[in-house]
## 1
Amino acid sequence: MIYLDNCATTKPCKEAVEGALFMMEECFGNPSSTHQLGLLAEREVENARKKISDVLMVSPDEIYFNSGGTEGANTAILGGANKKAGSRVVTTQIEHKAVLNAFKKLESEGFEVIYLKPDEKGYIDEKTIIDAVNEKTSLVSIMHVNNEIGSMLPIDKIGKLIKLKSPRCIFHVDAVQSFGKIPVYPAKWNIDALSVSAHKIHGIKGAGALYVKKGVNIKPIIYGGGQERGLRSGTLNTPAIVAFGKACEKINFEDINHVRLLRDTLVDYIKDLDVVFNSSVEGFPYILNVSFKNIRSEVMLNALSARGVYVSAASACAGNKESHVLSATGAKYAYSAIRISFSRDNTADEIKEAAKIIRETVKNLTI
Amino acid sequence: MKEVILAKCGELVLKGLNRSNFENILMNNIKQKLKDDLKSIRSAQSTVYIELNEGADPDLVVEKLTKVFGISSISRAGIFEKDIEKIKKGACEYLRDELTLAKTFKVESKRSDKKFPLKSPEISAITGGEILKNFRHLKVDVNNPDIVVTVEIRDNNAFVHGARIKGAGGMPTSSNGKAAVLISGGIDSPVAAYMMAKRGLSLDAIHFFSSPYTSEKAKEKVIELTRIISGYAGKINLHIVPFTQQQLEIKKMCKNEHMTLIMRRMMMQIAERIAKKNRCDGLITGESLGQVASQTLLALAVTGECVKMPILRPLVGMDKEEIVTIARKIGTFETSILPYEDCCTVFVPKHPTTKPKLSSILESESKIDMEYWIQKAVDETYVIEVSE
């Protein structure tokens, strides 16, 4: 098996699995309980919180645990938009469905939603974003790294400018793909809310976190026992949270050099085929989106899967539907787009083997 | 209190001397369906009497029986001693929920044991009086009651039953032999399979699988559809035919506009061989006249010409809407519309011929070694056993 679908999910690292096991077998108390076992569980959760805040270089009390990226985005958008502060909200056409469909909900509630169009490489420059913001804008949500083509948006340069135009505006960033792979510094970049997910960085499914800057008013979308300072009620998923903390300890921003080498190797091996690169080679090296002309995505995907090479067509969640991201960028060969996404665990030998299989498959499928 | 489930046979009643044979098949099908829930089963006067083991949930059993072909209606009955005191009290207790919810009722009695001292109208009057005494909100309505309470005096016991539930109708599965259905994963073929099972056929299923042009998920979907059909038709052997190379060969060698028809002719011949090997006496398809280019009358003639077995096309005269209605009723629709459509659009001609001439199809077909590719597909076929 050669696993090249790391943007869909990653294999949990050993430390994460051990951390989760410990929480299930021994430290299984409810962190809200006040007896000793509860306190121990709470201590583990707080350790994990500290580790995540360290990676983001923020304060631990600005981290709110939840179930993952979708919940983070929904909380920030639905709980952050505020008609009194302004009925205009801004996002992009290439966001993840978790963001786009939350904005669809705002639209149905009477908000004016601006969906910014990217260029053909999936990029949107600072000026375009800032120009869309006016004094009536109460929410801006921009993704850091696009999950289908890996384009990187300038979220580090716009926070301050958004605030200058609309002081009460909440600026949310979907950092699910970038977190743990490249530096993300919400405090330094004037970001008010930022979503991350554990299973994209070798943690386990079912945990994520929302960073909310101190003093920023985001209302809960789930009500209950008041956990996570009232923003996210519900018993904490302690095994996944502790695994998240362990996965954070393993983050090393130097990994990107290894991954870039893998990506470049693969590109070298396949570039003479009848292929179009939908993602920019200067961009985020963890994602390579390519179209093998005249071979439909799902056919390529099935053929590679039969030979043990796992990739995806557009994003894993989108299934068979045409990708909204590639329609937005106007990609000509969207029907044959394949997303190959890497992790630090992939080896050069694996990539060479994958390239060989891809070449043979393309040859077999060209009819 | 003891309880029995009565399943009334439908059309079997008409079958003269074959009746006991049909009833035996029906009882056998019920046995297979109910497995450990069943304590005893017997038939008399075109009714099957089913007694359940302790712990079996009668509601679930009735639900299961509504999927058994050959049963026209189902009712649950309490079993009582042949003593009018016990019968009238028992009726009130046994039908408490139904009587509480109803506004009007009537009692019907049947006395097949003529030695019982009371006549039918007397039994009805006494039982009705007891019900009125216990359920003061109820009124008698002989024309259009909410509930009919039936009292039956038979040789050994008295039975009291309430509401009657509609059965699946049709004829007992396998009472008419076995046929093989060509199943694609779309809406039509599962409905065709259901309709022929309803007429008493047991089924094998044949699916043509074009990996990588269709995905594993598409195959799983076909397995799931087969599983749903097996809820009505009993265990089904699903034959998976790897069919990619054949399609590629046809695409390469034959005229583009003939592609679909040649492919279907090949499928029919492969299906016939698999059917024969598995002792099926017919083929079933979901074809509906004129639905697509390959289902015009002339096209059906061309695809049907190459096999000797009868081809059953139960949907041939139905509209899509009618087919969808049945698909929803039998529970295959939601699975059929899952979006793993066969993406073998590469194998669909741009302008398929709607008025094919057999001679030109045969000429086009002669470009490939049909026998080789048909036998190869049959040899590479593998079987998945599917049951509920």
Note: Chain B touches chain A through 15 residues (CB under 8 Å).
## 2
Amino acid sequence: MSLNFNTPLFEIIRDKNKCIQCKVCVRQCANEVHWYSSYENIVNSDNNKCVNCHRCVILCPTKAITIRKHRLEFRNNSNWTSNAIKEIQKQADTGGVLLSSMGNPNKLPIYWDKILLNASQVTNPSIDPLREPMETKVMIGRKPDKLKFNKQGDLITDMPPQIELNVPIMFSAMSYGSISKNAHEALARAATKLGICYNTGEGGLNKDFYKYGKNTIVQVASGRFGVYKDYLNAGVGIEIKIGQGAKPGIGGHLPGKKVGADVSVTRMIPIGSDAISPAPHHDIYSIEDLRQLIFALKETTNYSKPIFVKIAAVHNAAAIASGIVRAGADVVVVDGFRGGTGAAPTRVRDNVGIPIEFALASIDQRLREEGIRNSASLVISGSIRNSSDIVKAIALGADAVYIGSAALIAMGCHMCRSCSTGKCNWGIATQQYDLVKRLNPDIMYKRLVNLISAWNHEIQEMLGGMGINAVDSLRGNKLMLRGIDLNETELRILGIKYVGE
Amino acid sequence: MKIIDALDVPYRTLNKLIDTVLLNNNEENIILKNIFGQRYIGRGLSYKNSLIQIYGTPGNDMASYMNGTKIEVFGNGQDAIGNTMNEGTVIIHGDCGDTIGYAMRGGSIYIKGNVGYRVGIHMKEYKNMKPVIVIGGKAGEFLGEYMAGGIIIVLGIDISKSEKIVGKFCGTGMHGGVIYIYENLEDYNFGKEVKKSEFNEKDVELLSKHIKFYEKAFSRNLEYLRIEKFSKYVAIGKNPYSNMYCNY
């Protein structure tokens, strides 16, 4: 065996006085960290295998386990950090491309935290949402340039298809394959209960979930997995995935070992075959080609559903978004560089793309300048962590947001960032039957409903504080925002003033 | 048999008209005359017993998401014919453009003449569904790119000695399916994921079947084609990139 330089990231501390050798931790850990020694009658653990998912900590009946950052440190060095060293060791060991999960964890500015909201004082009464009407419903889809009415006052304009969301939040695209069937079921049921939508991702749609169609957006990506006529007609909208914030410019790859019987059925590919989504759609090399796909989908679904086009936030996002709207998309989706993923090459995830706050502000501005902002809804994603992020996003110009990581956290994700191993102890990012069944959709859908309901209350509180009684009145209302700790360029692009101005 | 004159009829109206005709009579056959580039003809159609005959040049994305109908084009086809098609038959009495049969999952496409780039890209197969593309002439670069299933046959009929039967990078990223080419080509023509494979009885049977179909569809005698002159190419494995990554 060759020398392996890997050292543990975490340290498992077991309180021997509390441990009753019940072996729950042994059974619960798919990474096989813990084992029982009958000779000594003690439970041991291997720090090297631990990913710090907290499963054993939470399930230990006597709370005997603690996990800490491992104390082993390299000599202090601001340049050659322990991460930098460990990455090299890993690659020297395997010759592999570094693969990471979840969003960019690096210390880069989070602009939501540098934006502050306004509230009414004296000159404009604030509104108490607990006792006064407050509208958080939004309509997603293309809005006509003009409305025409007949003499009786009835609307005679042919309205393009719209999706009604009770809250300006949707669950973003996470494919069946990247997450489990039970996780999908929880998302679908929560979306139905809340009157919002979830997104299938590029993994097809399980037959059992067609009944949630009214709250489903189906995705069409470059691999066209599971895409056929019934699938296209199953949801209320269709999303063309061009890119994703965590990995702009590159495709997807579900390894064959994750393509079991069920995943094979929804993706409509043989069991064990790699599911490779090419980097581009090879029928889209231009805005004109994009128009071709948009209208192919509209034709196939009888113009009954809004077509979403999702891109990663990249340098020219504003110009690209303008092209997308002109190509006939009804909804533009932009995913920022902090967006999550089941697996992405680390270098791409950590270095490609731009913050969603800037992409959003510049796209909204560009579409307004061109007089086509009404032609499409604007949905953003890429690390929405709480309700104030959403309020700020809407004030910067978004119609709604997609949440992915936050929804997974509600279902038990502890951000151990090991999705790509397929051994998620919480039953989310795995296809292993014994792990999947740990996620109980009956419980988890309620947790999702709780989260979104709580955020909805918070959104209403913040709106009320500003003296606004509808989300629609906040959209693009940048006067409600002020920047702090931002330079002039940042303020200019965001289109907001500095605090105190 | 219903005849539709499509002169100056935009694609949306035309496709709606086809829907109406087929909806009113499941078994109806349709003849489309004066087709000049109208897109999406046959999109998503599932009428298994219907035949649509097209005179002229249909536009891009013909037979996209098609689910069972038969389309015969008396003319050339354009790009992305049979895009993500599930079932059905397309017969083209002419040449075609790029990305024919993109992500096609089932059904068959027969093309009398030549095709452009990236034909059969990301073709798949699933259970009993096994898509087939038969190309009478030659194919451009990246034939069968990312191919994950199905069958591509290139006959190389009527091409001159200076013309290549397939372009460069044939089968790049291939991880399933099979390509038959009427010429024994050097390895450099192919992607690194492709290998030459031995012939067996089933290959002979399959090729004979599709050659016969071609002969009948295009009234062409191909008795001179010798099955043993075909070479067969398959994917080295169905997990070409499984060892590329390390988790961090």
Note: Chain B touches chain A through 47 residues (CB under 8 Å).
## 3
Amino acid sequence: MRSILPILTVLLAIVGIWYLAAIWMNATWVRDQAARDGREVAFSELVVETLGQERPVLPAPHQVAKGLYDGLFGQKVTSKRSLVYHAWVTLSATLLGFAFGSAAGILLAVGIVYNRAMDLSVMPWAIASQTIPILAIAPMIIVVLNSLGVTGIVPKAIISAYLSFFPVVVGMVKGLRSPDAMQLDLLRTWNASDVQSFAKLRLPASMPYLFASLKVGVAASLVGTIVGELPTGAVAGLGSRLLSGSYYGQTVQIWAALFAAAILAASLVALIGWAERLTLKRMGLAR
Amino acid sequence: MAVLTGAGFAVDVRLGLMAMVWFGFWLINAGLSESRSPWARRIVPLIFGVTLLLLWEMAARLFGISRVILPAPSDIWAQIGQSLPILWADFLQTFIKGALSGYLIGCGAAVAVAVLIDRSPFLQRGLLPVGNFVAALPIVGIAPIMVMWFGFDWHSKAAVVVIMVFFPVLVNMVAGLKATDAMQRDLMATYSASYWQSLFKLRLPAAMPFLFNGLKIATTLALIGAIVAEFFGSPIVGMGFRITAEIGRLGLPMIWAEIAVAALAGSAFYGAVALIEKRVTFWHPSQRH
């Protein structure tokens, strides 16, 4: 609670710097226009004109807020101009991919923990894959699947599944291995079977690790989906809003789409954080 | 297992062959991983990788998959051999000019800001939640804006990379500067060390494990940022440009070649940072095996 004031201060400072930057970056255009019309601009006029341009170099915060508001509430949600529509297109692919990616990741992690051959074969590659810019293959997957006749939500979901897969594998393996030898020995003295020690010790112990990697995974999923929307030629989704905005110089549209994506990412991470708190509380692990 | 291979043969001889290769290599790996010798640890993942490549090659050849959909590894290798100059130019443009310069600027700025705000608990309490929040956002989305501001050349890519790497490094560095305990700081105080002395002799070294954590995360982000930013516009050179251009011509082997280079560059970059970490933080428990 006591960090509310500092956070607000920082946010206010950011908005202030943003306004100053908007005036400074948009001023050139205003001066050029004025010179063309042969008129002088006083400083107060300059400020007003820089903050109300149609296609500014840097839109002022209130312009972005208006663009965002118009996009979210200004029209019917089925309209192609509605950000709700585009956000839903992106969100559905993200969620589908994330569900499959993290489920597959958890299964593979269980396999890795219980099978030594799998551990030695797969784990180094799973770790190495984190250092590779996997996102670069996103356009290729989209185009290849398109040429095979697979379009729509599935190619994007595959990319987002792929991106959430590896963080979940690595985190879950760490989590399933987190019980120490003493705890495992205790279960052995109770003659617990492998299934029992999995359900009663390893799985509960892995939960904090799982949720941490789910948060990373869902953010990666969203980025993957957005990038996956780029090569299809700006049809639908937040990524296509970014691309069409950059084609036509609609800076307000880019910023609004960017903030919509940020809100989406933040709510997804917050949702997982909420599930995490709830789960850990029920399990008595909450701190 | 024999049943599965048999079933594969019953459906298709080619499928059976692939099943045989898979299970054969898996048996070797399963056998090797039983042994406790240290070289099994190294050779098992290698065998697994080779198996996957072999299966890929077999699938592409035996089933006659078109090069437009999935080129065989040998095709990709041939493509790499043919177009080394192009790949090298793309590597220079995207990695050295775009990613590496952005990485250095972004990480440098993050460390400097972390040291600055470390003196003010008020700023820390304000900036850290904001930084943590921003680190989880899809920052690659600012790529079109940066391309608009800084033009098509590598400057805009470096700008995207700067913003992408800044927050993870900042958050880690601030945590690192807090990593000294009261006893150590008291010791510095009894030596009557000045702020700068205790910063350079105690707190910066103590922050290094945290800093390198952030730096390692940032290596991957830098390469991703540089490549994705090129999807929004670039000169006619660069890895991201080559990928988008070859997609239009359905030149899949070239795309795979670029991806292979990107993977190699990403791992090498990470490895280099990890190596520096090993030299710098040799004293840390996680480095003593």
Note: The mean pLDDT of chain B is 84.
## 4
Amino acid sequence: MHDAIAETAEGLKLPLILRARGGLHARPAAKLAQEAQRFAADIRIESENGQADAKSMLDVLSLALSQDAALTLTASGPDARAALEELADYLDSLRD
Amino acid sequence: MARALFYGTAVSPGYAIGSVHLLHAAGMVEKRRIAPRQVAREQQRLQAASEAVREALREAMGKVPEDLAEYREVIAAQMELARDPKLLESASRKVESDLICASWALDETVNQLCALFDKMEDPYLRDRAQDIRAVGLRLRESLQGGRAAVAPGDACVLVAEDLSPADVMDMDFSGVQALVTAQGGPTSHTAILARGLRIPALVGLPDVLGAVREGDAVIVDGVGGVLLAGPENDDLSRYSGLREEYTAWETRVRAAAHWPADTRDGVRVSVQANMERPEEATEMRESGADGVGLYRTEFSFLRNVLPGERELLEEYGAVVRKVAPARVVFRTLDVGADKMMRAQSGVKEPNPALGLRGIRFCLRHRHIFRTQLRSLMRVGVAGNVALMLPMISTLDELLTVRDIMRDLHGELAARRIPHAETLPLGVMIETPAAVMIADALARECDFFSIGTNDLIHYLLAIDRNNHQVAYLNEALHPAVVRSLKRIIDSAHREGIWVSVCGELASDPYGLALLLGMGVDAVSASPRFVPGMKHMLRRLDAATCMDLAYNVLMSADISASQRMVRERLQESLGSELAFHTTSILHSHE
């Protein structure tokens, strides 16, 4: 799935579909922010509801991501690729 | 201050006299302008506060008992919030751009974020504003030099916006005489904590924070649901008398809580507890309840994620094991399309009380209902389980559920999953239609449970959200009294038992009337159980039967009220005042 990472002017981009049952609620949003903070790269999540800083649980929550929402993760910085792979794996682990 | 009364919801009974201690110094944000050279220092203070709050939350987390997974979840989210870049960076930027101190910048940021979340359509996300506020208050306190600790032995009344799980874990409540919160309801953390500590608590007093100050003398009436600020000498002497009598009465009542409730003439009524979360089981057992007469199953469905079978099994299994060998009566999912989680993308109904709710919703959304029934049947082998169906209005609904359960039995048996093939199946009598066909329903089910709150609304055609018609809510209305009698008689004619799980069961006047009509079991919030048992022991079933007869014959509500009041005063004397009543409005 990480083959889908594309290089663009704004950084690396990875489109994906959120499979978490019932959408992204507080606990996974907190965990996602925690994971994201381990990277130096600037990481953003984009959905049709807007875009958010992946390191901010509040920002991520305010996107009100529902199940099957289409997202794009964007990262720029030294460890951008590792960050995208890690976060995509985490989001993928939320399906059951 | 001048004498003033604040009305709220009493969620833990008792009386307290003490001085106000504000948990959070709300409304006292430090608002200081700063010079450009102070910017860096204020930003550092913000960072330090974030770290201190995270440390305090981590410590609180360590104190959460094993079975309170929900608390851990809330605290973990708050720890993440306490270092959230959106929160901290916005505040930090504000310090620099507006040249204001850290507290002020933080307060503005928190308010903006809360306003954002308050406006959200999803109720789950809207509730996150509470977490942001709780963390915001902690950060502010840390910036202002930390939280004032409650000195044990202080006769204080703790007043707060709300109590969050972290507050509950990291505070010493030994000197606290009562809890009062602006927010919250009967199932809030405040309520559960207060009942555990056996101190009175009031919730839902939005104006109280603006009105009282640290150290003000107040009286908390946890029976009548009133906070009295600025008491006069008369108030103080009256309430210290009441407090003394109440404490003596409560000690007697508690001491006998685990004994059966037999009336003076030897009629035994089973007194059970209503519950909605597994962690209430300890309180339930301590109350002396003879089982759980109503377990509400909505709680796990009202989040934005539908619970899976494994999650339900875990919840129901925990309850059943903790209550065993006594019985747990589970009420199947009782939600309307209006309240249902966003996973179901709720339909807007103009009149949800008459809409697709209770059993109607479950039979329409079979996959949800089947998951719940399957979980209950599987838990049936772990303890003493019964289930009951809400909002029944036709016989067909009951028969359809029996069909589904037969089908699930086949499915589970084929997969060799241990389960109870059948479970005692009851019907909740809440609609006028169910009252009229009670005889037919009684032939097809194992017990009745009367949900008096909804029954009264539907019988008298009143919208519970419309205050204009609230005056009609009259439990002693002949239509209500006659219906109760009809339901109980129909059940007994078919040899099935009847339980009452609405507010009427814990009301002293309602309880006497129900006893007189021959009800077999009553179920109420655990906090009322010892008092109800004590009262039943002081009553006489034959006298109550006579009372019920007279009330049934009466077409005049105020005459009925007079009759029950006089009869109860004769039997109970001054103790009557210690029971909370909602059906007699004018008791002098």
Note: Chain B has three domains: 4-25+148-250, 36-143, 269-578.
